[in-house]
Write a structure and sequence with these properties.
45% helix; globular; alpha+beta; four-stranded mixed sheet; 117 residues; Nucleotidyltransferase, domain 5
Length: 117
């Protein structure tokens, strides 16, 4: 099994547990250059809020979009937008990535900005 298939298998296992909880989920995806976050509804059919390093306000304020500093900016932005949409509690879906580095920085920034998970 290659690296990507292992990550996807971990992600599916994690998402099945989150579905049992029946709460909104904060999903994170990362590439070598960017990081993306979105809050999905309880049933997984709608996106409540989203943020990424591709957005002009975040991309313009950062020299490099593939580092932990940019992940902190995305974490603050997603928390702000989720709170505006009325979502205060989420389950954190790291999409099979290790809870380390940029993923951890995004999660900590979202917690500090007011999201509970």
């Amino acid at each position: 099994m290659d690296k990507k298939a292992s990550r996807i298998k971990r992600a599916l296992r994690q998402r099945s547990k989150i579905k049992q909880l029946g709460v909104n989920r904060l999903t994170v995806h990362k590439t070598s250059q960017h990081i993306y976050a979105q809050v999905m509804s309880e049933d997984g059919t709608a996106t409540v809020a989203s943020a990424s390093t591709l957005e002009a306000e975040i991309k313009g304020s950062q020299a490099n979009t593939g580092n932990a500093v940019s992940a902190v900016a995305v974490g603050k932005a997603i928390a702000k937008r989720a709170l505006e949409a009325g979502v205060t509690e989420v389950a954190f879906d790291r999409s099979g990535f290790k809870y380390h580095g940029r993923v951890k920085a995004l999660a900590d920034a979202a917690r500090e900005a007011g999201l509970k998970f």
